[in-house]
Amino acid sequence: MICQILVLNSGSSSIKFSLFDEQEGALTDLYKGQISGLGSNACFTVSSSKNQKFTDLLKTADHLSALKYLFDWLESKLDSNKDLFVGHRVVHGGNHFFSPTVVTPGILEQLKKLEPLAPLHQAYNLAAIESLKQINKAIPQVACFDTAFHSSHEKPNNQFALPDEYYEQGIRRYGFHGLSYEYIATRLKQTEPELSSGKVIVAHLGNGSSLCALDQCRSIDSTMGFSALDGLMMGTRCGSIDAGVILFLLEEKNMSAQQLTDLLYKKSGLLGVSKISNDMSLLLKSPELTAKQAIDLYVHRIIREVGSLVALLKGLDGLVFTAGIGENANEIRKRICAELTWLGVEIDNRANDENSPVISTRNSSIKVCVIPTNEELMIAQHTFDKLNEKDSTPNNLAVGN
Ligand code: ADP
After folding, report:
1. 132, 273, 356, 369: which is deepest, by most CB within 10 A?
2. Distance between Cα 150 and ligand 1 center (Å)
3. Which CATH class is domain 3-145+375-400?
4. Is any ligand 1 atom within 6 A of the Cβ of residue 128?
5. Ligand 1, atom nearest to 270 Cα
6. What per-residue string of b and e applies to 157-171 under the rule 16 or more CB within 10 Å gives b?
7. Ligand 1 in contact with 294 (CB < 6 A)?
8. Is there a contact between 169 and 116 (Cβ–Cβ < 8 Å)?
9. Does 79 participate in catalysis according to the annotation?
């Protein structure tokens, strides 16, 4: 079955997309873009693999009209001799979905029930699936979950010290950024085969930040837990916080659940501490003391969590940096690695300044790598594989009514 695959990553205010062409199982990217500013002044931007760029301003767009616009634009770009499949990033698979899943009406209903577990993501991920169903219900859609890669965790790593019935109700540590970690694990096997059979911590440092401990490329634990709020400090999210603080804010400061959600997800992290921005590149350039304090805390929290994952792994062979900050902010990598010299980490400053694939020295006991993530390719690959399984034919895969 030859095909083209559209990957959608639909959020509250933007829909990111990538179009891949398949040729004998190999995937090549053709276009990558986004419709941003949904709900206000939406803007469509796209660039082709040949570096042609196109921008357009849309009148106010919701998810449905944005996708209609995208499909109109795609019409002249798609190969009519090939089937079109769509793969979606879906943040939460709960404790039922551990692998990419073809979306049927029943599956969509089950995924909707998980919306409260990821209030800032899940509903918008699913909005794209529903909108596409309205535009063309014959297109097979596959949901790829950010939680799935972490389904290999042992129970103690997934458990809160609450009465066990809460675990059974799904109140457990799931872990996120799984598509990114799975992509990095795949790349490690290709480019660093020796390291891939060892103990590695991957630092996905973007607007959302987390760490994942890999043992032979299997996820052992991650800093994110029940929600994408846990673990490291992030762009606007606070990361791990004493549950007593939440109780205090609720009971003593009379904050509502909505105010707390806003505070913890949108007003904390780098933005909250610096009072300047959630954008690391701006903070690194800022002369303000609060910017420095925010960066210090960001690094401090990473070091703390690296320590706990090294203990769980019982050693460390490699450290991999990925995502916006991990791939580009050499200053942050340098500061993290400087705090890990006790582990035997030694970096080559020039290689680090150049964002080279390997930034550690030959003498370093830990190999330190920079690997750009590619969640879109991972989703496209999963979508292709899923729809090429023996019993998967387009006719029985469409989302339907
Ligand atoms: P998202 O989680 O939204 O996908 P990204 O992975 O794109 O986020 O990461 C965004 C973060 O990466 C921002 O804080 C941005 O400032 C940071 N970043 C990107 N490029 C650089 C750079 N050259 N130097 C420092 N930080 C950078």
Report:
1. 132
2. 24
3. alpha beta
4. no
5. 14
6. bbeeeeeeeebeeee
7. no
8. no
9. no
